[in-house]
Structures are given as C-alpha cells and as structure tokens.
Design a protein that fits this description.
This protein has about 270 residues and is of the alpha/beta class. About 25% of the residues lie in helices and about 25% in strands. The longest helix has 20 residues. The relative contact order is 0.15.
Length: about 270
C-alpha cells in the first residue's frame, strides 16, 4: 500500500521571518489536500521547490481568518484560476471553510484579483461551507471538521482517516480544548502548535497569545497516548537550532515519535 505523505510547507507563527507561516498538504497518490497557505505569495515558491504542481491541488481547507493563514489563499485561487482558464487544470477545486469565512474569502478575492479570475469562484472553484462535526469526502477519505473553540478568531481543525485507517488530527494553531476530546482522542498523528520552549515562556509569553509551549503540547500527547506528534507554528529566534532544542525539551515529557520539521519537509504518514 502506498503511504500518504505530509508535505510541511511552513512552520512559523505569524511574526516569523526565518520560517514561512504554518501550512501543509496531505498527498495521496498524485493529488493534494492543502491546509492554509500562509500569508503571501511565498507559498508559490515553496510549492515549486517541493515539486507540488498546482494542477494536482484538488482540495483546500482554510482554518481561520488570520493573515498568516488566509492571505496566501488569494494567491492560490488566482493561480489556480489562471490554470483553469489556460485549460491546464482538469476538474474543479474545492475549498472548505466554516460559514463565517466564505464571504471573507470572496471579498478578499473580489478586491484583489481580476474579474476574469474571480468569476470562476462558484463555477470551477467551489467554496464549501462546513459545520462543526461535519464529515466530507476528500480524496476518498473521511474528513471531519470541528470547531477548536478558539479564544480569538473562530477556527476549525479536522480529523482524517488515512488509507491505513490511522487517524490524523490537525488541532489548529491554539492549545487543545477539552471540548475537542472526541476528535483528538484515538489519534495516531497529532499536529499541534508549540509557540516556544517552556524554558523561554517568560520571554515569549505564549499564554497571553493563547498558545502553548513544547512542554504542554508534549504532555498532552503523552496523556492521550498519541504515538506521533508534530510540533510547529513556532517563534523563530533559534533558526537552525530549533529542532534539537525543541526535541530535547519535548522528550522529557513525551515518549512517542516527536517531529519538529523544518519548512519544506516531507513526512511519511505510516
């Protein structure tokens, strides 16, 4: 059986300059389910560097309206629309988000891209509103979207069952909320934010921003017996030393497979 792959496109938080904003894609065969697109057109260079053809991006999910997650979507829609007009994109594009984001995305696109591209929204580019707990078929997989109970902008995460029937959960970019236990529980993979090291919490003040540290994310995954944990959406002051520092702290509290990927990393979801 061919395994799905996790394409880590960006791993930084909103103010990071050494890393692109956190976004990723799940690859199944040659098709991609992309989640967020960061804050600008840098996403296009990353996709090119990782050999991800725009014509193979079939489904997109936008978690929430913060600039570091949604603005790259405008560039993605513009480029996909161009491919459609050129006749090089087969089929339709499906973009999922909660109902409060549909008009936001439409407005951003209407104000910033040409009419010839914008008019493809609703024709070949479909904005699909999803509700809390709703399941959709994405690349042949059951994907269940859920409200993460953000303290800031309304935000959704999701769970997906892979071909292996293993469960992957994207918890968004805020700490796990107990209301989401039914979604996160039983996950084989958890994608979770870790704003900074616990040892540096007084420097970065993650709790004031509704974020967690490496320690809290690892303690959560350990308590829930989740075998694979991916940490991202981090500050970037350590740059090249982030991975060893985060792994060193994380392994004090978590004994599963811990990943602190850099931008443009590919993980096998086995």
């Amino acid at each position: 059986m061919e395994h799905e792959l996790l394409y880590v496109l960006g791993t930084g938080n909103a103010q990071a300059v050494n890393y692109y904003n956190t976004c990723f894609a799940i690859r199944d065969g040659k098709d991609y389910f992309m989640v967020d697109a960061g804050g600008g057109n840098g996403i296009l260079k990353i996709l090119a560097d990782m050999n991800v053809p725009l014509t193979d991006i079939r489904h997109i999910f936008v978690t929430h309206a913060h600039t570091d997650h949604i603005l790259g979507i405008v560039w993605l829609i513009r480029m996909l629309a161009s491919k459609i007009r050129q006749g090089s994109y087969e089929g339709d594009v499906y973009l999922y988000c909660h109902d409060g984001l549909v008009e936001t995305i439409k407005t951003l696109c209407r104000l910033t891209i040409q009419e010839k591209f914008y008019k493809l929204i609703g024709d070949r580019i479909h904005l699909v509103s999803v509700s809390d707990g709703e399941t959709k078929q994405v690349l042949g997989h059951d994907v269940t979207f859920f409200d993460i109970h953000s303290t800031k902008a309304r935000q959704y995460g999701f769970t997906i069952f892979l071909k292996s029937r293993k469960k992957l959960t994207c918890a968004g970019d805020e700490p796990y909320h107990p209301f989401c236990e039914s979604y996160v529980s039983g996950s084989d993979w958890l994608l979770h934010e870790a704003f900074c090291l616990y040892a540096e919490r007084e420097i970065w003040k993650p709790y004031e921003k509704s974020h967690s540290t490496v320690r809290e994310a690892c303690m959560l995954a350990e308590a829930m017996q989740i075998p694979n944990l991916v940490l991202w959406h981090t500050e970037d002051s350590h740059a090249n030393q982030r991975q060893p520092l985060y792994l060193q702290e994380g392994r004090l509290y978590y004994h599963g497979n811990l990943f602190v990927p850099d931008d443009k990393t590919i993980l096998t979801l086995c």
